[in-house]
Design brief:
It is built from seven helices and eleven strands. The two termini are 37 Å apart.
Length: 212
């Protein structure tokens, strides 16, 4: 099953390091970051989970819950979490799904036979409070994820959901944004963007980032 942007994230019930989880119920009204790992006790994943734990406050400010997945069982996860906490100087306080039966891996197409027919790939999904998939990204096993980019995308999604703007290349929170081309009415533009805007081309209009 291939998951595309705008699809409803498949619901599931699965065991985890924090007990059984019904995914949609667990997510509630929050945004979610679901990310998979090839296996427990792997070096790159250890750094990723440690870094995610250190983003606790940044995620909380954005109303985001993190949840990881590995095909290893719960008892292995618990031992691995001890290693992560020790080596990364943090405390993992989000669940790691124990997908031993590959149920979630199959729902989210996390096993790519041409890469490895038993281990999950390094995929990540951003899911909004309506349970829609808003971003999918898959890394090779050898490359750790850029979680600063994940935060940047969440900031962009949350901003553009509430304003008729898009974010340009390499945008960071606080930078100028693009007024969407479909917005033509000058009165509405003045109302929405009281700080004004500049026209680079008729289709490329930049304005200071709106507040809120």
């Amino acid at each position: 099953m291939s998951i595309r942007l705008g699809d409803i994230a498949p619901d599931f019930e699965q065991d985890s390091s924090e007990g059984s989880i019904r995914f949609h119920e667990w997510l509630g009204d929050s945004w979610g970051v679901l990310f998979s790992h090839p296996a427990d006790f792997t070096p790159v994943c250890t750094t990723e989970l440690g870094y995610t734990a250190k983003l606790k406050d940044a995620f909380a400010q954005r109303n985001v819950k993190a949840i990881a997945l590995s095909v290893d069982p719960v008892d292995s996860h618990i031992k691995w979490i001890d290693d992560i906490n020790e080596t990364q100087n943090t405390r993992v306080d989000f669940p790691i799904l124990a997908d031993a039966d590959r149920k979630v891996s199959e729902l989210y197409d996390l096993i790519h036979p041409n890469a490895n027919d038993t281990l999950t790939v390094r995929s990540l999904f951003i899911i909004d409070p309506n349970k829609k998939v808003r971003l999918t990204i898959t890394y090779p096993a050898s490359t750790g994820r850029n979680f600063n980019e994940i935060l940047r995308v969440i900031d962009s999604l949350q901003l553009t959901d509430h304003h008729k703007v898009a974010t340009p290349a390499n945008w960071q929170d606080g930078d100028e944004v693009v007024i969407v081309p479909s917005l033509k009415d000058e009165d509405e533009i003045k109302q929405r963007f009281p700080k004004g805007y500049r026209v680079v081309k008729p289709y490329l209009r930049l304005t200071p980032q709106p507040n809120g």
